[in-house]
Amino acid sequence: MDILNNLFVSLYVWVADLLHGLLGGLGLAKDAEAALVSAIMVLLVITVILLWMVLMVLILIWLERKNAARLQDRVGPNRVGPWGLLQPVADTIKMFIKEDIVPANADKFVHTLAPMVAMMPAVLAFAVIPWGKGMQPVDINIGVLWIVAVASIGTIGVFIGGYGSNNKYSLLGGMRAVAQMVSYEIPQVLTMVPIVLMVGSMSLVKINEAQSGWFGLQWFIFAVPVGPIAFVVYYLSALAEVGRTPFDLPEGESEIVAGYMTEYSGMKWGLFYLAEYFNFFIVCTIAATLFLGGWNGPILPPYVWFILKVYGLILLGMWIRMTWPRFRVDQLMNLAWKVLVPIALVNIVLAGLGLPIFKTIGF
Amino acid sequence: MLDRYGVVALFAFMAVLFPAIPLVFSWIIRPKKPNKSKTTTYECGLEFEDFPEEAQQVWVQFRVQYFLYAIIFVVFDIEAVFLYPWAVAYNALGLYALVEMVLFLGILILALAYAWRKGLLEWA
Questions:
Q1: Rounded to whole angstroms, what are the CA distances from A235 to A230, A272, A291, B7, B41?
Q2: How many A×B Cβ pairs under 8 Å?
Q3: Domain spans of chain B?
Q4: Interface pTM, i.e. ipTM
């Protein structure tokens, strides 16, 4: 059991030892060798996380299409590979060999830069996400703030994509995306404050450790009434922030073609798409960490619990996507400013007042 | 502390590198045959060149509502910057911090109510 629980941590230590053994022959100073080994290990960890995430996205695309098909009484992709499992791989190959069309009127530099900028926050956020006990790339004491801070870079990528394309639909989609993202960032940021308040730290590892009581079931979602309210507000605003379907006005295909992605094709479009799924995965990992106990849970190894929770939230998001029609733009703004922000503000006061009670029952 | 932010810096480096790799790779293997009709601006099947000059220009002034939301956003984002340190230190500061923050939040809620009343949150 212990071996299983620490599988990836032991693997990390073993690879680091191996590197030490290999570099020992070079006769470097002890400090230099240690620094070199840790730098190589960090790069290795980042590469592994990114490859794992690309694999996750391929699975998510397949799962989303298959789920959508089932909920609409269709079969879904079933030609490429068993159960259509290789469909996303085929799509990726197609994306690589597809011609990249840049409109003559577009600002070409900005047009190329936009998908790269949109992709950056998704990579940066993985710096602090703990995948299991001891499985975080780095534990900085401003973890929650870091995630909020880098997530807002994505807005810039989407906007310059819409602006640089020099197309009406792109510009309108980019504008809508910025308005929606900044509006929903507020409830998202405010609703994390009660959790930070109960833990007294912004480090995601500390937040995980604070939820380890009650045989691993002391999750903040059970801290009634503050936890459930915070979770619902967070989840709704996170879905809106990443532009999932009831909130997909920036790219509503029946209104503005494809929004900011109208003039994109080939791999640039693929990067926007990849970034979208990365972001969706990230908000689900944050929700799982803050409200559903992260890696905590009875019996199963920590990383298994974490992935199970994340996938539960992802499936919930897909279900919501297939069930709800798109909002109107005024309804969207009303939901953010007139419903979610006041609820989040009241929730902060509730958490402050109720903290002594939460402390006595163990939170 | 420094080694932790060193890791973050390596992440920043990879964040720039990671999106560039597929773009460069696909630039090597993809066909490059642009022609005039491919590179016109997309306009739902209409001929973009046939439009009058002013209709071809899309970098135009936009409705003010987007700007107003951005202004309110800045106010609340700064509020969040104050709220996080308060939340971290709340246990140590006790009742005094609670009263202070309720006052601070009260002013902001009043501001939101004012903006609401003045119609800044209406889209139409």
A1: 8, 22, 10, 29, 37
A2: 199
A3: 2-117
A4: 0.84
Task: Give the minimum alpha-carbon distance from A336 to chain B in angstroms, rounded to a whole number.
Answer: 10
CA gap A153, A165 in Å, rounded? 19
Q: Which fold has domain B2-117?
A: Methane Monooxygenase Hydroxylase; Chain G, domain 1 (1.20.58)
Chain B: nearest CA to A263, how far in angstroms?
7
Distance CA B111, CA B73 (A): 12
CB contact under 8 A, B90 and A352: yes
> A209: buried, middle or exposed (CB in 10 Å: 19+, 13-18, 0-12)?
middle
Q: What tokens appear for A144 in the block?
A: 């929650």
Could you count the other beta carbons within 10 Å of the beta carbon of residue A55?
11
Residue A258 sits at the chain B interface (C-beta within 8 Å): no
CA nearest A197: which of A184, A182, A214, A210?
A210
A196 contacts in chain B (CB < 8 Å):
84, 87-88
CB–CB contact A42 B44 (8 Å)? no
CA-based Rg of chain A, rounded to a whole angstrom? Answer: 22
Q: pLDDT per position in chain A (363 positions), as tens?
A: 677 778 888 888 888 888 888 887 777 777 778 888 888 888 888 899 889 988 989 999 999 889 889 888 888 888 888 888 888 889 888 888 888 888 887 888 888 888 888 888 888 888 888 888 878 888 888 888 888 888 888 888 888 888 888 888 888 888 888 888 888 888 988 898 888 888 888 888 888 888 887 777 888 888 778 888 999 999 999 888 887 878 877 777 677 777 788 888 888 888 888 888 999 999 999 999 988 888 888 888 888 888 999 999 999 998 988 888 888 888 888 888 888 888 988 888 888 888 878 777 777
Q: Do A120 and B72 touch (CB under 8 A)?
A: no
- Give CA torsion, residues A67, A72, A74, A76, to 10 deg: -30
In 3D space, the residue among A234, A332, A230, A322 whose CA is nearest the CA of residue A283 turns out to be: A234
B3 and A202 in contact by Cβ < 8 A?
no
| Helix A30-71 × helix A7-24 angle, to 10° | 140
Query: A130 is written with which tokens?
Result: 């703990």
Residue A137 contacts B where some CB pair is shorter than 8 Å: yes
Contact B23 A349 (CB under 8 A): no
Question: How many whole angstroms separate alpha carbon A252 and alpha carbon A244?
Answer: 10
**Domain locations in chain A?**
1-97, 105-360
Length of chain A: 363
A-chain residues near B3 (CB < 8 A): 38
